[in-house]
């Protein structure tokens, strides 16, 4: 708790609260409602828990909604996101972002035209290039942020973030600047709660992944092992999945010819093709199998084997349990999830159903056990404050994510961003969260914010917050230790 006390002191200093001149602490605004009996308090605590884990925290009215529906019914609706229509205002905002509506080839064409203009030394070409790159990056990131804050399909947004980190590509690498929007839209989002093998195949064949991990240039006599290695180590089997370096090399040979051609992508939006001329047609020995020449089918067979492998089931189960339950998830839960993954041939929705129905997920002692990543913190703060995500507020949110070390689509390494306390709890990061809480809290009402957060803010925290000047109380709530955990 010493670190959290230091955090609060830093926050008060940043917010300008003068504790020595503070008024007498008051009871929390919702004290009467929270005192409605143990059953009522437990119902609200359980509602908050599922909102913190399956969503990016509560928006105003969400806790009451989950209490009325019951957590399991609310979860069941979240598992069927297609049944939840998007608000018209959100749909209109997304429709106005051209980058996320355009085919991958069209965005790449704009990117290449800007690059070519620079090489041709045309007047103002560098400024034009910067403007094109900035627009592509801004619209791609703003679309994700808009959905995360305002979409009623909260679990879908959580799973898009989860899988993007699992199958990470770095938007700062060359052509991926233009391809990330399509990658999330076409290879991640449609499969976020579908079949794992389909998701695996969609990421394997998307030009963003082919470019990021260099498989698009891999060929017989010029092998590149990057994608093959990460396909086994990160995407499927896990680092302890029982494969060898020879298996990596042999898989890379099986995947030669899996590529795309930028010109064909721009001209006809062909996102993938198999180039038989690049393929290594010699016999391979992979994971104890003899693989004879079969062209593209070799790679598809490899994806089939990897998706169905017991090590993959365990690897995915562990990561899901870590994300939704606690940093060191219970081994028994992981085993049950792995078995469910195997029994359903990688049905992600079925695995999630088992996870959310488990006693481990709903156990009171795991509530608040997860520390929010910078992305989760920023999105949950925007949701709790009920702030409309205007262009200026979106720009501020994206800017603070950059400063916090978690720019959207900005993880350079293929393992993606971590979601553990150890990865994000440090003094510098906390100071940046404090600064953002001050910025966002300027236009927020503390009493309304407390009502929206309900049991997320303990009475003890409220009494501490209430010693601050009224103008900074909302900021103090958003910067409290209670709010930084989920």
Automatic annotation (TrEMBL):
<protein>
    <submittedName>
        <fullName>DUF1800 family protein</fullName>
    </submittedName>
</protein>
<feature type="signal peptide">
    <location>
        <begin position="1"/>
        <end position="22"/>
    </location>
</feature>
<keyword id="KW-0732">Signal</keyword>
<dbReference type="Pfam" id="PF08811">
    <property type="entry name" value="DUF1800"/>
</dbReference>
<dbReference type="InterPro" id="IPR014917">
    <property type="entry name" value="DUF1800"/>
</dbReference>
